[in-house]
Amino acid sequence: MDVQKSGDEAVVVVDTNSWVATNKKGFVPPVCNKCMFSDFLKVFFVGGPNSRDDYHIEEGEELFYQIKGDMVLKVIEDGVPKDVRIKEGQVFLLPARVQHSPQRFEGTLGCVVERERKQDEFDCVRYFVKGKPIPTPLWERWFHLNDVVKDLPPVIKEFNESQEKFTNTPGDSSFTTKAAFKPSKVELVEPITLSKFINENIDKINASSVVLFKEQSTSTSTVLLGKGEHNLDSGNTELLLLFERGQGTLKYGSEEFTVPTFNTVRIKPNSKATLTITDGICLTFKFT
């Protein structure tokens, strides 16, 4: 697996193809994901098929980037079930507190980015009564999530062994704690086909930079960078770089890294670097 690191490990550059091949055995049901980075930014890659009937709710946003094949993100939008199909090559920003259930298929690969949970934040795994047109909660668990790869499967296992699953009727163990918050009623924005968007805006991207998801109220920043020299500053959070086309050179202090297409870069908080792109496109993502 090809990984480049700065001496203080503030900058890490990962060959994504190599990393996925090395960690492929970790993409196992029911969730099928494996973390690449797990500090403030939770960057994980997800295979398929998965086997999930649960809906997940969290207080932060999630970035979905579908690399190979399509996926379906089942959501509850203002109380109504809806399927959001995220096609190969598309990116989608899921707002906070939206009930969602990722459905992934064999031979597919996607990247999902979340943020670390604050100590007073809770996630929820919720199941609904089957066969009802209006979503009716059947069983749920609220908990503080530390590790999405490790913490979700035990909750799913608990439900699969519950009486409520077999009766499809709420019971004594359905709701053990009061809900930490109500789901969002926000109207969702359609996924963006990244290659098409880049082609249509290439002159603007190369002239300066272009922000994605501008029509959404968001606590994240997703920016496309083109030709030129770009001064990067992670600020008080982590900065993620996903190289889409061509390659770039990342300079951090006296250290220099070549970043080819489909490499993933994580820059730790309070770090500055210079990215030079002669011919290529880089997507940057951070929580603001």
From TrEMBL:
Cofactor or coenzyme needed: Fe(2+)
Ranges for region Domain A (catalytic): 1-178
Places the protein is found: Cytoplasm
Positions bound to Fe cation: H56, E62, H100
Keyword field: Cytoplasm, Dioxygenase, Iron, Metal-binding, Oxidoreductase, Pyridine nucleotide biosynthesis
Reaction(s) this enzyme catalyzes, per UniProt: 3-hydroxyanthranilate + O2 = (2Z,4Z)-2-amino-3-carboxymuconate 6-semialdehyde
Main location: cytoplasm
Designated name of the protein: 3-hydroxyanthranilate 3,4-dioxygenase
Upper classification of the organism: Eukaryota, Metazoa, Ecdysozoa, Nematoda, Chromadorea
